[in-house]
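Table S2 (text version). Query chain:
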Amino acid sequence: MTADRGTAGDRPLPLDGVRVLDFTQVMMGPCCTQMLGDYGADVIKIERVGAGDLSRWSVGEDPDGGNNPVFASLNRNKRSVALDLKSETDRQAALQLVESADVVVSNFRPGVMDRMGFGYDELRRLNPRIIYAVGTGFGSEGPYVHKGGQDVLAQAMSGAMHRRADPTLPLSIYPTALADYSAGMHLVQGILLALLQREKTGEGQQVAVSLYNSMLAMQMQEAAMWMMRAHELNWAAMPLSGVFETTDGAVVMVGAFKQNPLRDICQALGIDDLSADPKYATLEQQTVHRAELQAVFRLGFAGNTTEHWLARLDGVDILCAPVVTLEDALDDPQTACNRMVVELEPTAGGPVRLVASPIELSAAPFAVRRAPPTLGEHNDEVLAPAHASEHAA
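Corresponding structure-token output:
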């Protein structure tokens, strides 16, 4: 069986001809395999009979049921095959797919794929060229190897959740799945590196990432500062940066990358130049007196509109932006210009609108070639050729 051919005009897509067996669910794995599918890979999503990916049902009741917006956001450009891997017939069907696959991706707890008979050693015997990509919560060994991995836990246990702009604020969960997305993209990178190496050696290999490692890697600057200087680096707590409420919203300001940003901020606010005061003359002094500076900024910004302050800050070349809602961002003309929203054929549940790939390739433009699949939609299409080859043999 040959993989679907995706094209950009008369040119093949970067991953055209690469077949991916996708055992993943929820977010980390699916966002990885969706990226592979977006650029030409034939992604075959292996799902549980009758249930499928947990994301199909994690949002509760939805007009589109198992193709709700959360699932749809992570599973375009894939084909769904529903199998009962406890059934020997279905297990053999999946193993037969391995023989023609290039990549197998999973994100279960360590040991689960082995217990199902899909461990690396087993699959490598069937297909020495297989690239076996695994995403876990904490890694494949160590004290947390059997602990359930989840985005929020990785935020907490990596140190990221502990750092905040103001230590007097309560600890909180970051509202977007940072660990899942970063680990998913690291998994993409690992798979692409392994594919490149296979071109040189002819052999496959294991690729492994974890939520925990990805969150540590995201903090590379802060970690190096602590390990090498025992100093806490916190970009959110810089003295001349912050989020400030206005009369009709809020503005974020970054007072950095200039010789004397405090002087320019004061000019924008229409107040005396605080940088002339020895108390605030250096970054070190500004850091010591951050609370006082922030109070001055809050008082100033509270006196006028967001639009007014953005114009004033832009006028003195201080980095700034309005704080908007996701709804506002999706409707922003920049989003439209960047072609970051794609609309598919509507379903019984209503319109299907998804965020596009953030990667732009001039010779391989992003496209949705396949809508997010219904559970088991492609069983006959994917499995029939395998059954036919069995009968022919």
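Notes on Table S2: The chain has a mean pLDDT of 94. The chain is about 40% helix and 15% strand.
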